[in-house]
Specification:
With about 325 residues, the chain is an alpha/beta fold. It has a single domain, classed as Arginase, Chain A. About 45% of the residues lie in helices and about 10% in strands. It has ten helices and eight strands. It has an eight-stranded parallel β-sheet with strand order 2-1-3-8-7-4-5-6, sandwiched between helices. Helix 4 crosses helix 5, helix 5 packs parallel to helix 6 and helix 9 packs parallel to helix 10. It is globular and about 45 Å long. About 5% of the residues have low confidence.
Length: about 325
């Protein structure tokens, strides 16, 4: 009888010990579980390669300055180097033709590889958003893409139109019907306009200096056929300031986006529209880009469940481009 009581006592003690251990382990597991990221910054070391010429403004240092400013502002944990094993040629061919691809591979092999890596990065970003790995994504990639046509060579430093390919991918892979593309680069996204000019499923909004390269982007160009009304060009002159561009976005973009109700927002984030850029003449500050980011984020929050992917386009003042990128990322991460 005494032995039975002793055994029962130790058995109860053992049960209590294991319950306590389970609770303790569960507590630490929850404590270690990281809060999911609102935003991710996707990139890869390959974007530090490819140089068009010795002193060309579209240079690898653009990426180095962005990486450095992220590190110096404790945003390094937001950075993810993507896996580049994926074959994306099928998706590139949704926008570009085989002749263009063959010519790039033959005549610009490294540039083609780097630009293709940008495509891989953007598609990975859509995958992460659609699989709830991040609410939104900034793709720190180069070279830019929104001038890339099917000429078999670079156009305005661009080889493949990363944003256009991404739009097609999102529509076909994830059945997202309506895509809003917002382009605030100083230069008009002529390639993006070209590929979607008759497409009512893509609303393209571009603010730019129509008299700068490539000399396109007249406000009179509104689309063709079923695409009429889905192409919006806004010319902004030199010395455009924060309040000027913000007013345009509030008056022209927001009402049209409210009518369109996009399933996804893509941003051609060109920071050559920032003050003191080498190739632009606007006076937009980092605060201005914060406000523009809030506008597109609100549209995304209202209609796209917060789904937004932005892709670096131009930006040739090394420090300025990095500062604007950081300002953009901070709003992506903290927008409510």
């Amino acid at each position: 009888m005494k032995n039975m009581k002793t055994r029962r006592f130790f058995l109860n003690l053992l049960i209590v010990f294991f319950v306590f251990l389970f609770m303790k382990l569960n507590f630490f597991a929850k404590a270690k579980k990281k809060k999911p990221f609102n935003t991710r910054v996707l990139t890869h070391p390959i974007f530090l390669k490819h140089r068009m010429s010795k002193d060309h403004p579209e240079r690898p240092e653009r990426m180095k300055f962005i990486l450095d400013i992220l590190k110096n502002n404790n945003y390094l944990s937001y950075l993810e180097n993507v896996n580049l094993d994926r074959d994306v040629e099928k998706w590139i061919l949704k926008i570009h033709n085989k002749k263009h691809l063959s010519s790039l591979k033959k005549n610009f092999p490294l540039a083609e590889k780097v630009s293709k890596s940008a495509v891989q990065t953007c598609l990975k970003g859509i995958d992460q958003i659609m699989n709830n790995k991040a609410k939104n994504i900034f793709c720190a990639v180069r070279p830019p893409g929104h001038h890339a046509l099917n000429t078999g060579k670079d156009e305005g430093f661009c080889y493949y139109n990363h944003v256009a390919i991404t739009a097609k991918y999102a529509q076909e892979k994830y059945n997202l019907k309506k895509i809003l593309i917002v382009d605030w680069d100083y230069h008009h996204g002529n390639s993006t306009e070209y590929f979607f000019y008759d497409d009512p499923t893509v609303l393209f909004f571009s603010s730019h200096d129509q008299f700068a390269y490539p000399g396109t982007g007249s406000p009179s160009r509104k689309g063709i056929g079923r695409g009429v009304g889905f192409n919006i060009n806004v010319h902004l002159p030199c010395r455009t300031k924060d309040e000027d561009i913000i007013k345009i976005y509030q008056k022209k973009l927001v009402p049209r986006a409210n009518e369109f109700k996009p399933d996804l927002v893509l941003v051609s984030a060109g920071f050559d529209s920032r003050i003191n850029d080498l190739l632009g003449c606007y006076d937009i500050t980092d605060k201005g880009f914060e406000e523009l980011t809030k506008i597109v984020m609100k549209i995304s929050s209202n209609y796209s469940n917060g789904r937004l992917l932005s892709v670096l386009e131009g930006g040739y003042n090394l420090l300025g481009n990095a500062k604007a990128s950081l300002a953009h990322i901070k709003i992506l991460d903290n927008f409510h």
